[in-house]
Automatic annotation (TrEMBL), chains A, B:
NCBIfam families: PRK05159.1. It comes from Microbacterium aquimaris. This is Aspartate--tRNA ligase. It is found in: Cytoplasm. Its EC number is 6.1.1.12.
């Protein structure tokens, strides 16, 4: 393993013997010379071989080997993985990085079938069928390197501030958020478990456990039958929860700092490549992000001439786009916290402001799409029970959760954020499917 | 939120006004003076109040307030969360950190019921019933701070070496490892999904996708009816997979370096506290870890006088303890790679050595308990199909997986490691339940 040189390291290396491994992107099999573009996880390099098309009957072993190599290269299939030993040569005429490798030996590690079932312009659904081939595209590889950087920057932000990472269970005895859209799992002894729709209850548990500040990045599950570009039955949820807050503002302040830190890390590490492959500039947003109460947001949207058809007082997707357009025009900012939602359109555990009766909560919109709900939680068990009842929930079913608040609880709050939505918007993609390793939806469980 | 001072920061602070928040650990309500030990996520501090037991009828407002404060403190319940404003004073006679806070005002944020349902010495099962209270113990809090450090050190190790983080789906159309111990999930339109027993197939997919090196830390699910101290129905699996390896040795070399890095981080950050609370020295192991082929390990165990009852050629738990004892005595090392397992006791996708016929795989034992299986994978699709058939598996059911290897594949391998097992052994605990945030077993789904 030690011998292999990554393509990105070739340029800085002196001419001489070298070994590279990757897969065949293209073969140009000319009469006198053969070129192979070999790609690995770090880049692509040109391999070259002077073709030996025929040898006489009295060929030397070297001549025979040269013929065999030429024939091997001629037969190479697109996507085959191979290792080449050869001679590295710097040559500024070579467009691809200014280096090429003259092939000495070529070992095929895994040969590909000759017909590739998809192309870069195949339909999204077809590409998802062959996602393992689709992911070989440079753009798609970059998506997941960007995601790695984004997540690591977030975790580092938290760890540096003494947050505790938790792994909350995904198998639960009852619903976490609502009884709708819940996957059931037959469990031992005829019991039923449910897949967690969010770590909500368990991240709150960490607060009454005295953990102070926690985070989790983990799968969440919703038996959601929608086919929109923003929904999945399984998604990666980024969650944080903190104690001793005075209101949603403390949660929002942490979240905007977190996002700025993470987007900055992406811009620093991948800015140029994102520009090249996605045609996008990664702009690091300024702090604070604009904040607009929901009622005001609705007025702004109405003044822009859009009438929200929803009657529950919330914004609809077009309303979200309108308010985002307003914020972009007014403040030049891609994010906006929409705040102070009416309790009717919020979960029972959102704390309410005593004066206004509105919840101490927010949605965070990014480029016009909701990526987060955040809130201060109600930690007073009697109030919590009343609010649950008001929503038609049976407090008995919530007893294990209500217990959390019967033995002492600090004021606390947090947010949940969809990783794929952030990635989709950051890279200007049309669907979370483009930025999900393997998408899961109502009609998609494979590969 | 900005006002609050963490307990750990009190000592370095000058005498004067201060605000602290936490929960009541003890109250000593003496006639003339009251002491409260308040704990937050960073430590405990003594609060003090000169008791005002009675005031006359012509009491000043200050005297009445003093009486009210005294009565509030007398009535404080264990575990209540509160905020105290007061005066910080350094006093070397105070054993707890050499500081105390004289209470000016005290606000109860969340009052606890007077009877705490568990004590530190309650049974493990009872403590799991009330895990949110159990986690308030310093030891338990430390467990999850150690875990955070351990995981972050691992992720940083990988990210610094250009690994890509993946989030593989937990909902699958078919089994990942074996058809046994599989949770079924009724899915849309009368389909059935299965919960991933490991990310095995999907981390291999990343290799044929040209990702090179990847990692994932995520939940895995096994419908395992066992009640041992080492098994759970849901657990956190630490997985890595890398391309272009020459054998299991390359995987093992990465894993031992990873573990040393992570354990070093734990020793640096928490060594003293682990010593205090667990009575343990965190010893950073040396590299390389000892390696012993399974056949030799069995001979060593036999020579130690233990006859392994299993007839399949594997080690049993006692055999694992015996070989670990041998390694500890011989090399003074807590880890050992047991290698070269017979194909009969390994998964069909383990690559086999052409000469010996044994798999290119290992188990990693830590203090006598298996924490990992690692291997080079078979990437040649025809060989893979043969090996699957040999295990009685129907290649048709594996077709989506076999496809990964039909369009080109690099040699690759990786490992899966149970986070809770590592934590249990690192901290000298008897059961993974002690180091799992919320344990899930055949009879435990709540809280």
């Amino acid at each position: 393993m030690s011998e292999r040189v990554l393509v990105k390291d070739l340029q800085a290396r002196q001419d001489g013997p070298v070994s590279v491994s990757g897969w065949v992107e293209t073969v140009r099999d000319q009469k006198k010379v053969q070129f192979v573009i070999l790609r690995d996880e770090t880049g692509a390099v040109q391999l070259v071989n002077p073709a030996t098309r025929e040898v006489g009957e009295d060929a030397t072993p070297e001549q025979s080997a040269a013929l065999a190599l030429t024939e091997t290269i001629s037969a190479l299939t697109h996507g085959s993985f191979l290792t080449v030993h050869g001679a590295l040569k710097h040559d500024e005429r070579v467009k691809l990085g200014g280096v090429e490798v003259k092939i000495a030996t070529l070992d095929i590690a895994g040969e590909a079938l000759p017909e590739t079932p998809i192309a870069a312009d195949s339909s999204l659904d077809k590409r998802m069928d062959w996602r393992f081939l689709d992911l070989r595209q440079r753009r798609n590889n970059l998506v997941f390197r960007v995601q790695t950087t984004l997540e690591h920057a977030m975790r580092s932000y938290w760890v540096e501030r003494d947050y505790i990472e938790v792994h909350s269970p995904k198998l639960m005895a009852s619903a976490s958020e609502s009884n709708a859209e819940l996957f059931e799992v037959p469990y031992f002894e005829e019991k039923t478990a449910y897949l967690a729709q969010s770590p909500q209850f368990f991240k709150q548990m960490a607060q009454v456990s005295g953990f102070g500040k926690i985070f989790e990045i983990a799968p969440a599950f919703r038996a959601d039958p929608s086919f929109t570009s923003r929904h999945a039955t399984e998604f990666t949820s980024i969650d944080a929860e903190i104690s001793w807050i005075d209101g949603w503002e403390d949660v929002a302040a942490m979240q905007e700092e977190l996002l700025v830190t993470a987007i900055q890390a992406v811009a620093d590490k991948h800015g140029d490549e994102i520009k090249e492959l996605f045609g996008l500039d990664i702009v690091v947003p300024t702090i604070p992000f604009p904040r607009i109460p929901l009622a005001e947001a609705r007025e702004i949207v109405a003044a822009r001439g859009y009438e929200i058809p929803r009657t529950d007082g919330d914004l609809d997707p077009e309303g979200e786009r309108q308010i985002a357009a307003h914020v972009e025009e007014t403040y030049g900012h891609p994010f906006v916290f929409v705040t102070d939602y009416h309790p009717e359109i919020r979960a029972f555990y959102h704390m309410r402001d005593e004066e206004s009766g509105l919840t101490k909560s927010y949605d965070l919109l990014y480029k016009g799409v909701e990526i987060t709900t955040g809130a201060q939680r109600e930690h007073r068990v009697d109030v919590l029970i009343e609010q649950a009842k008001e929503k038609g929930l049976d407090p008995e079913h919530l007893d294990f959760y209500l217990d959390f608040f019967r033995y002492g609880a600090p004021p606390h709050g947090g947010f949940g954020m969809g990783l794929a939505r952030v990635m989709m918007l950051l890279l200007g993609q049309e669907s979370i499917r483009e930025v999900t390793y393997l998408f899961r939806g109502p009609t998609r469980l494979a590969p």
